[in-house]
Design goal:
It comes from Pseudoroseomonas cervicalis ATCC 49957. Belongs to the NrdR family. This protein is 41% helix and 20% strand. It has 155 residues and is an alpha+beta fold. It has two domains: 32 residues, no CATH class; 97 residues. The strands form two sheets. The protein has a three-stranded antiparallel sheet, with no helix packed on it. The chain has a three-stranded mixed sheet with strand order 5-4-6.
Amino acid sequence: MRCPFCGSEDTQVKDSRPADDGAAIRRRRSCPSCGARFTTFERVTLRELTVVKSDQRRVPFDRDKLARSIRIALRKRPVDEDRIERIVNGIQRRLEAEGESEITSRAIGEMVMETLKELDQVAYVRFASVYRNFGEAGDFRAFLGSLDFGDGNKG
């Protein structure tokens, strides 16, 4: 593993332990060249996924981008980081288990919305506003008016 600080390819593993409920291995590494320490994560990948964007471009699936978008929606909400990691792991496993190597960005967005709707209503609306590209207040009103959060109340 290359050192992210000096670029040396001779790094050493100092500690390994399970992470993300056993879905990953966390490795603490050090670089003998510059003395820096850093952490890496090793995860099982069932298949390489390609995301088909709305303009038909194809890009590699980026787990970090998925996690970042979920974190943004959940910013300042009462959801801890471990829960976010479990959500990302769950969505990634679902995508890999579907058996297709190409998945649309729309399908990923729908999975995230489905998960956030159950978890946190504010995060759900935040994510939807970006995902569905709301351009004005009327878009929010129409979206909120169509919601049923399962508690008997609309919006």
